[in-house]
Each structure stands twice: as structure tokens, then as C-alpha cells.
Write a structure and sequence with these properties.
The protein is mainly beta and about 425 residues long. It has helices at about 35-40, 40-45, 55, 185-190, 255-260; strands at about 5-10, 15-20, 65-85, 90-95, 100-110, 115-125, 130, 145-160, 165-185, 205-225, 230-235, 240-250, 265-275, 280-285, 290-300, 305-310, 320-325, 330-340, 345-355, 375-385, 390-400, 400-405, 415-430. It has a 14-stranded antiparallel β-barrel with strand order 3-5-6-8-9-10-11-14-15-18-19-20-21-23. Strand 10 and strand 11 form a beta hairpin.
Length: about 425
């Protein structure tokens, strides 16, 4: 599981395109900022309570006295299988993605400069993960491997304007790295069989693209204590356009190379990709001294992912040095609710639920993305003693089955992305100085 999370579709004599790959959130976003945030993100949006507030809404670091440091890790194991039907023989096949545990680390530090200003710095990721299938699977002409790594370095300044209002501003410098691999049906290209026939062929061309880029993003935040028991928070994390540049490499069977030695020669490529805007807002209500309820929403401008244009430094085949794919995603909502209960001065328990809307345009979808809506059920708890706090959490993600209308020219076939789910264990440790 997003450079953004995509796969490259290349047809030998037709256009190719990158498409997103499986991740643990709708689209190719990640929302795992901390163990506590994995359970109850609206609480950290609205009023914070730990240095990981930087990830959600940095205005809330004004609630953290002195200097505080936090480190955490989320371990995610997604799963899904893909059923396909060959348009040529009617044969049905079920393929399984390689089982893998993905690691998402994070680290934060906050420092109170004076009575009015705080400084915060975070290291985290907002986009990533990937999908990998056997190189001989039925959908290999669409993709068999797609992996993205992104990483944000984020300095923030927060201002306590009044006793009830705090504001923040800063930026995130984002590194974006992506690798994409697929097969090209050389036998079908030369008319030796049906084009992109999912049946095994020894003459497949292997294609691999690997590139990266670095871009800045703007972060703004607001926290408003409306009453003694109700707090509202909102944050904006801006879009970024990446000009990914890297190597495009092809491996050809000797027989294919003999027939077309000048085709599919290694070169450089560039691809302009958007990471979308994120608008976050949340409320918390201290129902009692021990019970704290919250609700919030995130709106993501996925419509930016409408068309992907890939430019090669020279022709892949005669007359083709540009690859274009229409995606036409739509904006999406992520709605969450959570509760925290203080059992004692040292122990707290938490629970949360999230509904995550898919941004994918069904008419242009494929079965490599767990692209339908999903529900996330989370539990967790925290222990505080002296200068230390430890938070742990678990969530289970259930993704609705997703039907795919086949397009053999693009390497996709009638079928279903099904049994998609994910597990996440997370741990965060905070030290106050």
C-alpha cells in the first residue's frame, strides 16, 4: 500500500497507465499517526493530548506544557483475494496477494517557547503501502507489484491567541518514492495468441519503474474551546504535485529481443502526480469527569487524481513516448466517532469506529485496489505514570467486496476484489521533560 500509490498499466501497442494499489485507507491515504489516534482521531483533531497532535491538528500542542517527545509504530497486515474470468476461455481463477506486514513509524517533539508560543516537529507518513502478486497471476498485464514509501518532516508553530483559541501554521516536506512492475504480453502483441490472454506465456516482457521526488505541503490548524466541556478543532493539510522522475527498465525474452531489439529500451520517465488536500474537523464533549466523547470528519480532494500522464525520454515503441490514463476519482469523506474513559488517574480505555468512503470511479476501476467503502473498528488504552505515557491499540478493517468490469486491453478482466480486510497493532510512548 501512495509519487502516490499507483500501478503502471502498459499495453504494448496501446496506452499505459499507473493506478493506485491496495492500502489500509480509502484511496492510497494512511491515517495511522499514533496508537491513540488510530482509535480516536477526532479527539486529537479537537483538543489533542499528546505530541502526535501534530499529525492531526498542530494547534492542539498548546495544551502540552514544557517539552514532550513521542515515538510510535503501527504494524498493518492487509489481505484480499481477486477473482477473474478469462474473456477467451471463460476460466475462473482466484489469486491471493503476498501476505506482508507493513511498518509505519512516527516521532514527534513539542516545546513550549513561552506563555504564547509552542514549537512542534513531526516525522510521519500520510500516503503509502502497496500490493504484490505472483508474477504469473492473471492480472500481471495490469500490475503484479506496486509499492510506495512516503515520509514527512514537519515543523510547526502554534500560538495560544486566547485562553480558548489556539492557531497553528507550518509545513511538511514530503519525500515520495514509488516502484511499479507489470508484464507486457509480447506473444499477443505479435499475434501469436489473444492479446493479454491471462494464460501463462514464456514471452512476457517484464517492466519496472522506480522514481521519487520531494515537495512541500502547507499545514494550518485551529482549536477552540467553546465551553468548559466542548472543544472544536479544524486543520488543513495542503495538496502537493510531485514530478516523479526515475528509471524505466524492461527485461525481454531472447526471442522477443531478436524480433524487436530496438523496442522497450531502458530510459528515464517522469510522471506528475497529486497528493490531495485534507480538511479535518472534530468535536469533543467531556460528558463527565471521566467520560469523553468525540466525533469528526476528514474531507479529501481526490478529484485531483483525474488523469495520469507519464512521459518517457524516448519512444517505448515507435511513435509512443507518452502514456495517458483517465481515472476521474471523486472527493471522499472519512467519518469517525470515539470515546475515552478514565478508569483511574493512571489508566484510560478507548474505542472508536470509522467509515471510510472510496474515491474510486467504478467505471474506470480495477481489482487491485480494495476500492469500496470500508468500516474500521478500534479499541485501545493508555497508562500514565510520572513523566511517561504508553498507549496501545488495535483495529480491524473490513472492506466491501468490489466488482470489476473487465478491459482486456488494459489487462483487467471481469471479476471481484473480495474478502479484503486489515489488522493493525500500534504502540506509542511519550516522555515529558
Amino acid at each position: 500500500m501512495k509519487t502516490t500509490l499507483r500501478k503502471l498499466r502498459t499495453a504494448a501497442l496501446a496506452a499505459a497507465a499507473m493506478a493506485p494499489v491496495a492500502s489500509i485507507a480509502a484511496g492510497f491515504a494512511l491515517e495511522e499517526g499514533s496508537a491513540r489516534g488510530n482509535v480516536n482521531a477526532p479527539e486529537l483533531m479537537a483538543k489533542g493530548g499528546e505530541p502526535a497532535s501534530i499529525y492531526f491538528n498542530a494547534a492542539n500542542i498548546t495544551a502540552l506544557p514544557g517539552t514532550q517527545a513521542q515515538a510510535g509504530i503501527s504494524l498493518i497486515k492487509p489481505w484480499a483475494d481477486v477473482s477473474t474470468t478469462s474473456p477467451y476461455t471463460g476460466q475462473k481463477e482466484t489469486s491471493y496477494g503476498h501476505s506482508k506486514v507493513w511498518t509505519i513509524p512516527s516521532a514527534y517533539v513539542t516545546h513550549q517557547l513561552n506563555d504564547d508560543f509552542w514549537f512542534g516537529f513531526g516525522l510521519f507518513t500520510r500516503y503509502g503501502l502497496g500490493a504484490e502478486f505472483p508474477e504469473t497471476w492473471a492480472g500481471r498485464y495490469s500490475s503484479y507489484k506496486a509499492e510506495i514509501i512516503s515520509f514527512d518532516a514537519s515543523p510547526q508553530i502554534a500560538w495560544k491567541a486566547t485562553d480558548s483559541l489556539s492557531l497553528s501554521a507550518g509545513f511538511s516536506l514530503r519525500y515520495f518514492d514509488i516502484e511499479l512492475a507489470q508484464k507486457i504480453d509480447a506473444a499477443g502483441m505479435y499475434g501469436l495468441r489473444n492479446y493479454n490472454d491471462p494464460a501463462y506465456s514464456p514471452y512476457d516482457i517484464d517492466q519496472d519503474l522506480h522514481g521519487d521526488d520531494v515537495r512541500p505541503c502547507l499545514d494550518l490548524g485551529l482549536s477552540w474551546k467553546i465551553t468548559d466541556t466542548v472543544t472544536f478543532g479544524a486543520a488543513y493539510h495542503s495538496r502537493a504535485q510531485f514530478k516523479v522522475r526515475g528509471d524505466a527498465k524492461w527485461e525481454k525474452h531472447p526471442a522477443v529481443n531478436a524480433m524487436a531489439p530496438a523496442y522497450f529500451e531502458d530510459c528515464y520517465f517522469t510522471a506528475r502526480n497529486w497528493n490531495p488536500d485534507k480538511y479535518m474537523a472534530g468535536f469533543t464533549w467531556d460528558a463527565t469527569e471521566r467520560l469523553h466523547l468525540s466525533a469528526g470528519a476528514t474531507y479529501t480532494t481526490w478529484h485531483l487524481y483525474d488523469t495520469l500522464l507519464i512521459k518517457l525520454d524516448h519512444d517505448m515503441i515507435p511513435g509512443r513516448d507518452k502514456l495517458v490514463s483517465e481515472k476521474n476519482w471523486h472527493d471522499a469523506w472519512r467519518l469517525s466517532a470515539g470515546a475515552s474513559y478514565d478508569l483511574t488517574e493512571e489508566w484510560a480505555i478507548r474505542a472508536g469506529y470509522t467509515w471510510d468512503q472510496s474515491p474510486i470511479n467504478g467505471a474506470m476501476a480495477d481489482y487491485l485496489v480494495p476500492g469500496d467503502n470500508r468500516s474500521i473498528f478500534a479499541i485501545g488504552g493508555g497508562w500514565t505514570r510520572g513523566a511517561w505515557t504508553i498507549e496501545a491499540s488495535y483495529f480491524y478493517e473490513l472492506v466491501e467486496d468490489f466488482h470489476v468490469a473487465g478491459n482486456p486491453m488494459h489487462g483487467t478482466f471481469d471479476g471481484k476484489y473480495q474478502n479484503a480486510s486489515g489488522h493493525c497493532l500500534a504502540l506509542s510512548v511519550t516522555r515529558r521533560f
